[in-house]
Amino acid sequence: MSRNNRALELGELQHVKDDGGARFYSYKKLTSAVEKGSEQRLEAIGTKKGKLQEFHEIGDLLSKLSWTFRKKPGDQKELTAGSLPTSYESLIRKAHGACEKLSKDTLKLQKEGGTSVKRS
Protein backbone atom coordinates (compact mmCIF):
# COMPACT_ATOMS: atom_id res chain seq x y z
CA MET A 1 0.00 0.00 0.00
CA SER A 2 1.42 3.36 -0.94
CA ARG A 3 1.93 6.15 1.54
CA ASN A 4 -0.65 8.30 -0.24
CA ASN A 5 -3.33 5.58 0.01
CA ARG A 6 -2.54 5.09 3.70
CA ALA A 7 -2.73 8.88 4.27
CA LEU A 8 -6.10 8.94 2.46
CA GLU A 9 -7.39 6.15 4.70
CA LEU A 10 -6.28 7.98 7.82
CA GLY A 11 -7.84 11.21 6.64
CA GLU A 12 -4.51 13.04 6.57
CA LEU A 13 -4.70 13.50 2.82
CA GLN A 14 -7.78 14.76 0.97
CA HIS A 15 -8.62 14.81 -2.70
CA VAL A 16 -11.18 16.38 -4.99
CA LYS A 17 -11.94 15.77 -8.65
CA ASP A 18 -12.53 18.50 -11.16
CA ASP A 19 -15.04 18.29 -14.01
CA GLY A 20 -12.46 16.59 -16.21
CA GLY A 21 -11.80 13.82 -13.65
CA ALA A 22 -8.38 15.10 -12.57
CA ARG A 23 -7.66 14.57 -8.87
CA PHE A 24 -6.22 17.30 -6.69
CA TYR A 25 -4.68 16.36 -3.36
CA SER A 26 -4.14 18.41 -0.25
CA TYR A 27 -2.90 17.68 3.25
CA LYS A 28 -4.82 18.63 6.32
CA LYS A 29 -3.06 21.15 8.43
CA LEU A 30 -2.23 19.54 11.74
CA THR A 31 -1.27 21.67 14.66
CA SER A 32 0.14 20.40 17.88
CA ALA A 33 0.73 22.42 20.97
CA VAL A 34 1.86 21.95 24.50
CA GLU A 35 0.43 24.13 27.21
CA LYS A 36 2.61 24.54 30.25
CA GLY A 37 1.83 26.37 33.42
CA SER A 38 2.46 26.40 37.07
CA GLU A 39 0.62 27.34 40.19
CA GLN A 40 2.49 28.91 43.01
CA ARG A 41 1.24 29.23 46.52
CA LEU A 42 2.81 30.53 49.66
CA GLU A 43 1.26 29.68 52.95
CA ALA A 44 2.53 30.41 56.41
CA ILE A 45 0.95 28.75 59.40
CA GLY A 46 2.04 29.30 62.94
CA THR A 47 0.64 29.18 66.40
CA LYS A 48 1.73 31.03 69.46
CA LYS A 49 0.01 31.92 72.66
CA GLY A 50 -0.41 35.62 72.85
CA LYS A 51 -0.33 37.89 75.81
CA LEU A 52 -3.42 39.77 76.84
CA GLN A 53 -1.64 43.09 76.24
CA GLU A 54 -0.87 42.06 72.63
CA PHE A 55 -4.52 41.30 72.00
CA HIS A 56 -5.54 44.68 73.37
CA GLU A 57 -2.96 46.34 71.10
CA ILE A 58 -4.37 44.46 68.10
CA GLY A 59 -7.86 45.59 69.08
CA ASP A 60 -6.70 49.21 69.36
CA LEU A 61 -5.00 49.00 65.97
CA LEU A 62 -8.10 47.57 64.32
CA SER A 63 -10.19 50.35 65.85
CA LYS A 64 -7.81 53.00 64.49
CA LEU A 65 -8.10 51.45 61.02
CA SER A 66 -11.91 51.49 61.37
CA TRP A 67 -12.07 47.74 60.84
CA THR A 68 -14.86 46.13 62.75
CA PHE A 69 -15.65 42.68 63.98
CA ARG A 70 -18.34 41.16 66.10
CA LYS A 71 -17.38 40.27 69.60
CA LYS A 72 -18.89 37.08 70.90
CA PRO A 73 -19.61 36.23 74.52
CA GLY A 74 -16.71 33.75 74.74
CA ASP A 75 -14.09 36.09 73.24
CA GLN A 76 -12.97 37.54 76.56
CA LYS A 77 -12.48 34.05 78.01
CA GLU A 78 -10.34 33.07 75.00
CA LEU A 79 -8.27 36.25 75.33
CA THR A 80 -7.77 35.64 79.02
CA ALA A 81 -6.73 32.05 78.27
CA GLY A 82 -4.13 33.34 75.79
CA SER A 83 -5.81 32.27 72.54
CA LEU A 84 -7.14 34.32 69.65
CA PRO A 85 -10.94 34.35 69.24
CA THR A 86 -12.34 33.26 65.89
CA SER A 87 -13.82 36.72 65.28
CA TYR A 88 -10.29 38.18 65.53
CA GLU A 89 -8.88 35.43 63.27
CA SER A 90 -11.55 36.09 60.65
CA LEU A 91 -10.78 39.79 60.59
CA ILE A 92 -7.04 39.16 60.35
CA ARG A 93 -7.62 36.79 57.40
CA LYS A 94 -9.67 39.50 55.67
CA ALA A 95 -6.92 42.06 56.29
CA HIS A 96 -4.31 39.63 54.96
CA GLY A 97 -6.43 39.04 51.83
CA ALA A 98 -6.75 42.80 51.32
CA CYS A 99 -2.97 43.18 51.59
CA GLU A 100 -2.40 40.40 49.05
CA LYS A 101 -4.88 41.98 46.62
CA LEU A 102 -3.27 45.39 47.04
CA SER A 103 0.15 43.86 46.38
CA LYS A 104 -1.05 42.07 43.23
CA ASP A 105 -2.79 45.21 41.95
CA THR A 106 0.35 47.25 42.59
CA LEU A 107 2.53 44.79 40.66
CA LYS A 108 0.01 44.73 37.80
CA LEU A 109 -0.01 48.53 37.57
CA GLN A 110 3.76 48.54 37.80
CA LYS A 111 4.06 46.16 34.83
CA GLU A 112 1.49 48.08 32.79
CA GLY A 113 3.20 51.38 33.44
CA GLY A 114 6.70 50.02 32.93
CA THR A 115 7.91 51.51 36.20
CA SER A 116 9.90 49.89 38.91
CA VAL A 117 9.49 50.18 42.63
CA LYS A 118 12.58 50.42 44.73
CA ARG A 119 12.27 48.16 47.73
CA SER A 120 13.94 49.17 50.94
Core attributes:
about 120 residues, mainly alpha
Could you characterize what this model shows?
- The protein has 120 residues and is mainly α.
- It has a domain at 52-113.
- Helix content is 47%, strand content 8%.
- Strands 1-2 form a two-stranded antiparallel sheet.
Residues in helices, as a percent range: 40-55%
Radius of gyration: 33 Å
The succession of helices and strands, N to C, reads HEEHHH
- Strands ordered across the widest β-sheet: 1-2
Q: Mind sketching the topology for me?
A:
Elements: H1 3-10, E1 13-17, E2 23-27, H2 52-64, H3 75-81, H4 86-113
Antiparallel strand pairs: 1-2
Can you describe this structure in just a few lines?
The chain has 120 residues and is mainly alpha-helical.
